Amino acid sequence: VQLQASGGGLVQTGGSLRLSCAASGRTFSSYVMGWFRQAPGKEREFVSAISRAGFTTTYADSVEGRLTISRNNANNMVSLQMNSLKPEDTAVYYCAAVLRRLGVPRTDDEYTDWGHGTLVTVSS
């Protein structure tokens, strides 16, 4: 599946952004979807993931309660609503997909398809 992330930008501390990831193909609902991020000088890290039907979600501790992942299988879209943003949220955000039946992976090596990232900058 091909993925295209969008929605990044510059926001002040405490602000909000909504990232979107559009997927191509007719089997989007068979993919578990995830969001990862990479800050300057740091390794890529897990942010959130959602199961195929959207019933199961998981978040990194650092974003729990501030970010919300959702998906719309009819429109082949996955979104990440980001509230109460902090400077440490500054990173390039990537959406990722893996074709699997069970589980919601939290490690990047379990995802097979990646989109180009979108930059989120949170100013202090």
Attribute tags:
four-stranded antiparallel sheet, 124 residues, mainly beta
Give the helix level as a range of percent.
under 10%
Low-confidence stretches: none
H/E series, N to C? EEEEEEEEEEE
Instruction: Say how many strands there are.
Output: 11
From the spread of the alpha carbons, the general shape counts as: globular
Q: How large is the count of helical segments? A: 0
Q: Describe the largest sheet.
A: 7 strands, mixed
Mean pLDDT: 97
Class per helix and strand makeup: mainly beta
How would you characterize this protein structure?
The protein is mainly β. 0% of the residues lie in helices and 49% in strands. The strands form two sheets. Strands 2, 4, 5, 6, 9, 10 and 11 form a seven-stranded mixed β-sheet that branches. β5 and β6 (57-59) form a beta hairpin. The chain is globular and about 40 Å long.
Summarize the structure.
By secondary structure, this protein is mainly beta. The protein is built from no helices and eleven strands.
Write the layout of secondary structure elements.
Blueprint: E1 3-6, E2 9-12, E3 17-23, E4 31-38, E5 45-50, E6 57-59, E7 67-72, E8 77-82, E9 91-99, E10 113-114, E11 118-123
Parallel strand pairs: 2-11
Antiparallel strand pairs: 1-3, 3-8, 4-5, 4-9, 5-6, 7-8, 9-10, 9-11
